[in-house]
Specification:
This protein is of the alpha+beta class and 1295 residues long. The chain has 43 helices and 24 strands. The strands form 7 sheets. An 8-stranded antiparallel barrel has the order 3-4-5-6-7-8-9-14. Strand 22 (1192-1195) and strand 23 form a beta hairpin. The longest helix has 35 residues, at 502-536. It is flat and about 130 Å long.
Length: 1295
């Protein structure tokens, strides 16, 4: 670039230089220059480019050094840009966004070095803007008539977009599991390079704008710019090389381990991706999320893998999921990160709201170079205490708290004593000089105290005592180091409400904070009780969604967390609405809660990472925000459950709350681990310290909860223990999409059940003629598709309705996933078409791309299919057309066809077809002919069948089509039959087709029974496939492959909808396994033993329906379950926190029923005749039959005392009516007994077994001990009976 300027420009520049030399910098500009010097020293030169140099390796060396100092340098840069922004406000928007993006990375729990390297390129670009500090007047026109402000304003728009994109790229990349990052590193390297190159281009543009602007001090500015930009060409070239080296050398330890694993395999990466066993090993090596609690179910069973973003936190990352994520394009990953924009905007707002408030205390200016460290303390009281005690940079937390107590106590006493002296001296007429001295002492005391202190704050002094110092120590000592620094003191006082005095603020932490915790405890319990009540009226379609949320480990963690709170009963009688002490703090508490609520709404309740948690809750220790945050998340859950009473929820609706709770629990667990480390370092008993810290709430965050009074509180009491009078924040709507109320809409659009969208069935007429026009594909087609290495979903039937001269085809059809349309193009013998389903699958639009070869007779098509947005193409190994002879399908015997009249055959003459993966930057175009609109952000790229647990993943599937109606494939004999006797097989084909036509026009019980059996088995296998997370039993897989060949596509779709309908209603007791047979998960009925589970939180004895019916024994540790024990029956998921009150209700119900039976027997004994039914007797609430003795069930849910006979309960279990309901239980009848009610058993005499039967249930150790005791007793008896004889024998032996 030329540096020559016109004479007029040089004269103008000379005048500007002279003006700048005579200019006196203001105080703000001096501060800016000082900060600039700091960042210059931090960078090592005036301005250092990370891509500067002759080779990328040199730049990488600089980046490597800067990564370790990223936090320090970036904070300095943000301060400098703040000062530049004050001088030149037009760059403030870019600075704010830069700070927001950088703060997201600074507050992240763990940072990938590659992400840090990308952020350094952003810092490098923004650092160029610091040269604006040399610009005196940014609005002064330059040589071309444009001012530097005008030029940069034109450029800032694209800079802002690049900053946003960089932040989103970093956030999305950080959320990828390690295995996905490793296998997609090439894709992400390209995206990082693209963003880094944009920053380099922006930097070049900024330098150009500054260099041609003559109003800058040219002598200084040009030297600096020359140092910055050695060669723009080298910079642009080195960015790509730099990122290549960064991705190679900055791998995490986990990525290096995966690289070593891949390098051992012949075939490298491709071989690993095709090997399920190796991928399982890769997933096993993947680093799991932090926290012990989330890896355990209710009984302590370990779960390992981390879920993908967007999945439920309890989901397990499978090989299928891994392949699917690897196959995703980076742009699709960015599009899937839907909640990032809200998080980024919330962070920007938070950055903009941060204002540094400096309190000027009279004429005293706080400066670090004055007499002592205390000069840096802002608060006057703390300043005086620190100065009087002579402390340096830090002090023991206990010493500071005790000094504060003495300071306030002594100050009050000294002021009173001085006032008494003045009053006495005035009365006695003593020397006025003494009175003046006393007045000065009082004034000195007054100057030392907080100006906000008022007489009415004297109440606070009584709470600054030795007995209450622990919570104040916790408030001051944020890092639990036992020492309080000046920074911590200033942070403590800066958080004080504006109108509160320091004593008021201290009293809040010594007494008011405990009130706050107890108040939130009761409000959280109320929210849980309200969720319990709202769940009863939820639509059956939402039953499983709510049950999965209630049984999730995140909700169990909340229950355990709350169980540690001590002294709960002492606060039960507090009137939270009118308590005078609580009202002194309530305004601040409510204001803080509303602030968190606004932040939660800003991020749409999605807390996906630690940096988002900081946006929502702010800085500081978790104790400050955990209680209101948990409450607000549960209240959001309550809102969703209430909506579930009228709306069919999306399957992932409540998983958003689970994910947010997950991040919160991780933060708490990290805090507890820090506390444990400090306790160990100080040789303190951790268990005792946890009981003291934060009022005991951390006692069971990492430990197993123990039984206490917390578990005995019932939901009715919780619902009424406190009134929730806190108004929800109602921010003004900022757009048409923003709600005007405090409750945001649901995360996902209301769902519609698949069975409600079933289209009218269509059947191909097997006898209808097929067009035979030359080069036309119009007609009926049928076939199948499979997933690479696995069976597909069944047969496919569709009709091509149009095929024009240009080769374009249009058609429609149906398969197991529902109706679909096809449109594509036939070029010679190569067909490419798009298959788009009309019904959403799991809320997503499904689109697949098919590419295949058409046989010369235009009656067969064979090829591959895959996602429309992935880079793959169909490759034919041999340049040979598909023969008109016999062709074998890829999908099994039932779909194998032949040419004119054969169904079987070999692959003779068939070219081999495979799929090639195109490189990311190959630039090759696919031979596809479809609108780009189909590949938009409507979810089309998420191909596959999410509901069956199978997705396209990294591999592609195959397909086979034949110009025949689907009835043809359904009637085909097997290959073996054709090979054995071809004429017989053809006759069988004709007979089968005729039989199907006849059966379709008549009904018989045999046909209906066979179809019912087939339907039930299909539904059962489909459920197993959904629950197996992609790994199937071999025998079941074979049965599935055979079954789907025998079912018409219309039936497949209908039966699949029925299966999905039932799966939304079927309850799984997650984390519960049968203690007799080990069956897991338990569904739908759970039997829990009261006798064996009393005083237990998690270690309960549970049986499945089969083991309960078989009266099996069970053991757990030292407990032995006997069939004679009373059992609770649950057909709904029950909150653990309310399980023990159910035990009490069960005992009362059993006692009542037994009493009624005794009264009935006594009445029968004194009466000789019966006059109608016995009013004291028991009768089944369903069949109304009389019950005179056990066994029977007592209902704990019915308003009236109700008993149910065993026969009626077994009948309900067999019918499984809960799988077919469309309305909530409350609307089914008029409040009578139904299947969902909780029952307790009164077992009959047939299960009261003998001692011999009880012996079988004893543990091996107890049985051995009992045998040893019997042998010892027998031996003692023998010795005692034979002792005289033995004595005589001994005496004879001696003689």
């Amino acid at each position: 670039m030329s540096n020559d300027f016109s004479d007029a420009a040089l004269q103008e520049a000379d005048a500007a230089i002279k003006a700048s030399q005579s200019y006196q910098a203001s105080k703000g500009e001096k501060r800016l220059n000082a900060l600039g010097n700091v960042i210059t020293k931090a960078s090592g030169s005036s301005v250092v480019s990370i891509a500067q140099g002759d080779a990328a390796a040199q730049a990488f060396t600089f980046v490597k050094d800067q990564v370790s100092n990223f936090v320090q340098h970036s904070k300095v840069l943000m301060k400098v840009l703040d000062e530049v922004g004050k001088a030149h406000p037009f760059i403030q928007v870019a600075v704010s966004l830069f700070k927001a993006g950088l703060t997201l990375e600074l507050t992240r729990r763990e940072n990938d070095d590659k992400v840090v390297a990308l952020n350094l390129t952003m810092c490098d670009m923004m650092q160029t803007l610091t040269l604006l500090k040399q610009v005196v007047n940014a609005q002064q026109p330059g040589p071309d008539g444009l001012s530097i402000e005008d030029r940069l304003k034109q450029r800032l728009g694209s800079i802002i977009e690049t900053i946003k994109r960089c932040a989103k790229v970093c956030d999305s990349y950080q959320k990828r599991p390690t295995a996905v990052k490793f296998f997609t590193s090439t894709k992400w390297q390209g995206k990082f390079t693209e963003v880094a190159q944009q920053f380099a281009d922006h930097k070049t543009g900024i330098q150009f704008d500054l260099q041609i602007h003559a109003s800058v001090g040219i002598t200084t500015a040009n030297v600096t710019l020359t140092a910055m930009s050695t060669s723009f060409t080298e910079l642009n070239e080195n960015v790509s090389k730099l990122m290549e080296v960064v991705f190679e050398r900055m791998r995490s330890p986990e990525e290096r381990d995966l690289s070593a694993l891949v390098s051992k395999e012949a075939g490298g990466l491709d071989a690993v991706l095709k090997n399920d066993k190796l991928l399982e090993e890769v997933l096993a090596k993947q680093k799991t999320g932090a926290g012990a609690g989330k890896d355990k179910d209710e009984k302590g069973t370990k779960n390992a893998r981390r879920a993908m973003p967007g999945q439920s936190p309890d989901a397990v990352l499978t090989v299928t999921d891994l392949r699917k994520e690897i196959n995703k394009d980076v742009e699709q990953v960015l599009a899937d990160n839907k909640f990032f924009d809200q998080k980024f905007e919330a962070m920007k707002m938070q950055v903009d709201e941060v204002k540094v408030e400096i309190k000027h205390e009279s004429d005293r200016v706080i400066d670090t170079i004055l007499s002592g460290p205390h000069e840096r303390i802002v608060d006057r009281d703390l300043y005086c205490v620190w100065k009087e005690m002579g402390w340096k940079g830090s002090v023991k937390a206990k010493h500071l708290v005790m000094a504060l107590r003495d300071h306030f106590a002594e100050g009050s006493h000294a002021a009173l004593a001085a006032i008494r002296v003045i009053a006495q001296e005035k009365k006695d007429g003593v020397d006025p000089a003494s009175a003046a001295q006393a007045i000065e002492e009082i004034a000195d005391i007054a100057n030392r105290t907080d100006p906000h202190a008022a007489p009415e704050d004297e109440w606070a002094l009584q709470y600054i005592t030795v007995l209450r110092i622990q919570p104040l120590i916790e408030a001051l000592d944020d890092d639990v180091s036992s020492f309080v620094t000046i920074a911590e003191v200033n942070a403590f006082t800066a958080a004080r409400p504006q109108k509160w005095s320091l004593p008021h603020w201290i009293a809040y932490w010594t007494f008011g904070f405990e009130m706050t915790v107890q108040w939130y405890f009761r409000r959280i319990r109320k929210a849980i009780a309200d969720i319990v009540g709202a769940t009863i009226d939820a639509l059956p379609a939402n039953r499983k969604i709510i049950a999965d949320f209630i049984s999730s480990w995140q909700v169990r963690w909340v229950e355990d967390f709350l169980s540690g709170l001590r002294d709960v009963e002492q606060w039960d009688d507090t009137d939270w609405e009118f308590d005078s002490m609580f009202l002194k703090f309530k305004d601040y508490i409510v204001e803080n809660e509303l602030k968190i609520d606004r932040s939660l709404q800003g991020v749409k309740y999605v807390i996906d990472e630690a940096n988002t948690l900081k946006i929502v809750a702010g800085d500081g220790r978790p104790e400050k925000y955990i209680m209101p945050l948990v409450l607000l998340l549960l209240k959001r859950s309550l809102y969703i459950v209430q909506q579930a009473q009228t709306t069919t929820l999306h399957l992932k609706e409540l998983s958003i709350i689970q994910g947010s709770l997950h991040v919160v629990t991780c933060a708490i667990e990290d805090r507890v681990k820090t506390l444990k480390a400090v306790n160990k370092l100080q040789n303190l008993d951790n268990q005792e310290q946890m009981k003291k810290f934060f009022y005991g709430l951390y006692s069971f965050t990492l430990e197993e909860a123990v039984y206490s009074d917390y578990w005995t509180r019932d939901p009715e009491s919780d619902a009424n223990m406190v009134g929730d009078d806190v108004p929800m924040d109602t921010p003004a709507a900022t757009s048409d999409e923003d709600p005007p109320t405090g409750d945001l809409p649901l995360f996902y659009a209301p769902d519609t059940e698949d069975i409600d969208r079933v289209a009218e069935p269509t059947f191909d007429d097997a006898t209808s003629p097929h067009p035979t026009a030359a080069h036309s594909l119009v007609g009926h087609w049928s076939g199948s598709y499979d997933y690479e290495g696995q069976e597909g979903d069944g047969l496919v039937s569709f009709t091509v309705s149009s095929h024009d001269d240009a080769g374009a085809i249009v058609g429609s059809g149906t398969d197991a996933l529902g109706p679909f349309t096809v449109h594509g193009t036939l070029n010679d013998d190569r067909l490419t078409f798009i298959k788009e389903y009309l019904l959403l699958q799991d809320g997503q639009l499904i689109i697949w791309r098919y590419e295949g070869l058409v046989a010369p007779g235009l009656d067969e098509i064979k090829g591959k299919w895959g996602p429309p947005d992935a880079d793959w193409k169909l490759v034919v190994e041999e340049d040979e057309p598909i023969g008109a002879g016999e062709v074998e399908s890829v999908d099994g015997p039932a779909r194998q066809t032949e040419g004119e009249d054969s169904v079987t055959g070999s692959d003779a003459g068939m070219p081999e077809i495979r799929v090639d993966e195109l490189a990311e930057d190959s630039g090759e175009a696919d031979d596809q002919d479809y609108d780009e609109e189909e590949d938009s952000d409507d979810g089309a790229s998420d191909t596959g069948t999410a509901d069956t647990g199978i997705t396209t993943g990294f591999m592609h599937g195959t397909f086979f089509l034949k110009r025949r109606p689907v009835e043809y494939l359904l009637s085909c004999p097997s290959n073996e039959e054709f090979a054995e006797n071809r004429p017989r097989a053809l006759w069988k084909l004709a007979l089968n087709a005729t039989l199907r036509v006849v059966q379709s026009k008549s009904l018989s019980w045999g046909l209906i029974s066979a179809r019912r059996k087939q339907r039930l088995r299909y539904i059962e296998l489909l459920k197993h496939r959904q629950e197996s997370w992609g790994s199937y039993d071999v025998q079941e897989a074979q049965e599935w492959a055979q079954l789907i060949k025998e079912i018409h596509p219309n039936d497949l779709h209908l039966w699949r909808c029925i299966a999905l309908y039932q799966m939304r209603r079927d309850i799984e007791h997650d984390g519960i396994s049968c203690d007799a047979c080990g069956d897991y998960p338990m569904t739908p009925t759970r039997f829990l033993c009261i006798d064996c589970s009393q005083d237990e939180v998690d270690q309960t004895i549970d049986l499945c329906i089969d083991c309960f019916t078989a009266n099996k024994h069970a053991t757990r540790d030292e407990k032995v379950h006997h069939p004679a024990h009373n059992m609770l029956q649950f057909r709904t998921v029950y909150w653990r926190v309310y399980r023990h009150p159910t035990y009490v209700a069960a005992r009362m119900a059993l006692s009542y029923a037994e009493g009624q039976l005794q009264l009935s027997k006594a009445r029968s004994a004194v009466q000789t005749t019966t006059e109608g039914p016995d009013p004291f007797g028991l009768a089944c609430g369903v069949c109304k039959s009389s019950i005179s003795a056990p066994p029977y069930w007592c209902c704990l849910t019915c308003d009236e005392r109700t008993v149910i006979c065993y026969a009626c309960n077994e009948r309900t279990e067999h019918r499984k009516e809960w799988l077919f309901l469309r309305r909530s239980n409350a609307t089914q009848g008029e409040g009578g007994h139904d299947w969902s009610h909780t029952l307790v058993s009164a077992p009959g005499p047939e299960v009261i077994t003998t001692d011999t039967d009880q012996e079988k249930a004893l543990t091996v150790e107890k049985r051995i001990a009992r045998m040893e005791a019997k042998l010892d007793a027998r031996l003692a008896t023998l010795v005692k009976g034979n002792w005289p004889r033995l004595a005589r024998i001994d005496a004879g032996a001696e003689t």
